[in-house]
Design the sequence.
């Protein structure tokens, strides 16, 4: 899952980036409000962690601006301002969650996963399609009850597919989900990972839609 | 000195009643003298008139008989009035209460005019008159006590109503004063009923104009307290914010270190944890310095050599500057003594030089100088860093103000401390752009103290 982290404090930002990466997130880190707004407008993130006291543009202003622009990316506000009026204002402006520093890394990750799940209309903790079950917290995949071993990229790709089950995803959208900044995307990387997924999970799960992209089919085709 | 009652109402009542009774007494005394004088004139006139009648009558009745005749008593005051008529030194006529001896008392030559005499143990006012041929001598006397009775009667009729009115007056005054001071009581109630932290202005709709300055002063005080509380509240919130961020960083970095398999990454996270601890420590120290500065009275002052002090600070910070490949210069040609507290001045200079080192980019030039100018000692810290916009320069010293976009960690308390120490030492601080180096130039100007030896 690719998320945007907007935090001006070097030490905290560095720690959050490293910690969330450990927990399986792809993290892009910006250190001021203007950059945060620019990235949220330009890229599609599964979620964003937004500090409020950002230089150049306050976090709440960034939030209000992207909501006005119709960007629905789930936003978790991470702040030291804990007064109830601050929380209310944050949620009213368009925050999906409000967490006061200091925060436990695992809790933050769980909250982000919950935000993403909700944004995709997925009520359960685990994502499932046909006989495949994906557990985002444990980062594990089972097919018909048997564990399946996937690489990090394959897991991220499958998770992106399962979150948007029955919807066609373009190659560019999938690439955005797979790579944070500064990582070179090989021209056929997505194809290679999809090939591997089909090899491990069977060909019935992910379909190719010619000229558009790929689609994960949630229910097994009637035979 | 009489102890007045503590209540305003009691005081007003006592003072007004005292003044009223005093005025009445003075009036009574003046009435006494006036009435007694008028009474004397009038009654003396009557005596003289009666004597004149008796003289004339006796002159015509000489032929009648020479025996003393007692005149009848006709009025209840008559016993107090007496007369004697002598014809050729023989008693010709007298009132019943008059003695046979002439009413001359001790004044043996008394023949004409008024005199006040002691006769038979009583005080008499006597008028004596002689006939034209000096053969008739008339004395008409009146007891003084009768005059006093009249005088007392007059005074009684004047003073009695006043004495009777006094309790009524006291009650009326009590009521009037009670009504008069009611705005003060209402103000007291309004203040007593306020919440401890209610700082909205007091409103008294029909407060008398005398109370307006008091209410205004009170509201002014509430406003000042409100501003102070607001700034304290903001300070607490800001301090919480500034403390939470390094703590959050420490926690997150520690969790990263726990979960990291890669040795180099774990090492990095652990070092970052230590960084966070250092930052939190510095922040707490700065907060403590600031709170001590704000709480304490004037610190102990002595003559401090600013040149030597600045040199020591520059020496302490040289390593840090060299680490950033900056050029840190120091220039002071002579000792410059100023009155001050050495510890505090060191904190001030350290903050300024540390800021210059911290916020100037690598390879920047930083120049610290102490010099004398027109009887003043000037410490200047200049750098070739990015400088600050005018608006930002003005905000330096606001607690927790940090320059936007600065990636250097800092609490935003350094300048608050600098300003506070400067205020305690009555130092003038100028923040400008450096003409020589292009970055920020801070000048601390002090009045020179004792001449250097």
Sequence:
């Amino acid at each position: 899952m690719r998320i945007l982290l907007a935090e001006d404090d070097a030490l905290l930002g560095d720690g959050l980036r490293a910690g969330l990466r450990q927990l399986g997130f792809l993290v892009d880190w910006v250190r001021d409000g203007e950059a945060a707004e620019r990235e949220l407008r330009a890229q599609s993130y599964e979620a964003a962690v937004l500090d409020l006291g950002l230089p150049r543009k306050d976090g709440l202003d960034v939030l209000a601006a992207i909501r006005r622009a119709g960007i629905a990316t789930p936003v978790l506000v991470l702040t030291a301002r804990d007064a109830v009026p601050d929380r209310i204002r944050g949620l009213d402006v368009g925050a999906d969650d409000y967490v006061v520093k200091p925060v436990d890394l695992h809790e933050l990750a769980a909250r982000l996963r919950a935000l993403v799940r909700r944004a995709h209309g997925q009520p359960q903790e685990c994502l499932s399609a046909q006989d495949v079950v994906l557990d985002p917290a444990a980062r594990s995949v089972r097919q018909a009850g048997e564990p399946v071993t996937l690489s990090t990229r394959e897991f991220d790709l499958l998770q992106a597919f399962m979150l948007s089950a029955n919807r066609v995803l373009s190659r560019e959208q999938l690439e955005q989900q797979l790579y944070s900044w500064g990582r070179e995307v090989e021209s056929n990387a997505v194809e290679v990972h999809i090939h591997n997924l089909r090899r491990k999970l069977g060909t019935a799960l992910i379909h190719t839609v010619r000229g558009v992209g790929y689609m994960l089919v949630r229910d097994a085709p009637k035979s | 000195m009489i102890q007045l009652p503590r209540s305003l109402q009691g005081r007003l009542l006592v003072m007004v009643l005292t003044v009223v009774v005093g005025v009445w007494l003075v009036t009574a005394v003046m009435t006494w003298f006036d009435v007694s004088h008028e009474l004397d004139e009038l009654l003396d006139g009557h005596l003289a008139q009666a004597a004149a009648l008796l003289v004339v009558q006796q002159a015509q009745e000489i032929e009648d008989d020479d025996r003393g005749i007692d005149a009848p008593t006709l009025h209840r005051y008559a016993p107090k009035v007496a007369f004697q008529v002598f014809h050729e030194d023989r008693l010709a006529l007298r009132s019943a209460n008059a003695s046979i001896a002439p009413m001359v008392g001790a004044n043996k030559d008394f023949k004409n005019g008024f005199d006040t005499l002691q006769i038979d143990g009583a005080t008499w006012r006597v008028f004596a008159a002689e006939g034209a041929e000096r053969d008739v001598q008339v004395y008409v006397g009146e007891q003084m006590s009768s005059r006093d009775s009249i005088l007392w009667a007059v005074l009684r009729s004047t003073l009695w109503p006043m004495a009777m009115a006094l309790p009524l007056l006291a009650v009326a005054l009590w009521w009037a004063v009670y009504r008069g001071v009611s705005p003060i009581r209402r103000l007291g109630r309004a203040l007593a009923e306020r919440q401890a932290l209610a700082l909205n202005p007091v409103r008294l709709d029909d407060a008398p104009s005398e109370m307006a300055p008091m209410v205004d002063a009170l509201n002014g005080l509430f406003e000042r307290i409100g501003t102070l509380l607001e700034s304290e509240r903001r300070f607490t919130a800001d301090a919480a914010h500034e403390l939470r961020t390094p703590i959050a960083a420490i926690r997150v970095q520690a969790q990263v270190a726990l979960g990291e398999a890669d040795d180099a990454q774990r090492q990095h996270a652990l070092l970052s944890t230590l960084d966070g601890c250092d930052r939190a420590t510095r922040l707490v120290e700065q907060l403590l310095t600031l709170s001590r500065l704000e709480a304490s009275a004037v610190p102990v002052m002595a003559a401090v050599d600013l040149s030597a002090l600045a040199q020591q600070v520059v020496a302490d910070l040289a390593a840090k500057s060299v680490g950033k490949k900056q050029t840190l210069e120091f220039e002071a040609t002579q000792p410059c003594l100023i009155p001050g507290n050495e510890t505090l001045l060191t904190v001030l200079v350290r903050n300024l030089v540390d800021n210059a080192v911290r916020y100037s980019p690598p390879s920047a030039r930083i120049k610290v100088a102490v010099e004398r100018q027109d009887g003043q000692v000037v410490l200047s810290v200049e750098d070739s860093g990015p400088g600050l916009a005018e608006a930002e320069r003005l905000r330096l010293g606001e607690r927790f103000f940090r320059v936007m976009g600065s990636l250097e960690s800092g609490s935003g308390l350094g300048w608050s401390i600098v300003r506070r120490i400067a205020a305690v030492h009555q130092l003038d601080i100028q923040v400008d752009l450096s003409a020589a180096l292009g970055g920020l130039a801070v000048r601390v100007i002090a009045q020179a103290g004792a001449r250097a030896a």
Q: What stands out?
A: The radius of gyration of chain A is 18 Å. The helical segments of chain A are 10-22, 33-42, 59-68, 84-93, 105-119, 152-163, 171-178, 189-201. The first helix of chain A runs from residue 10 to 22. Chain A has two domains: 2-119, 127-216.
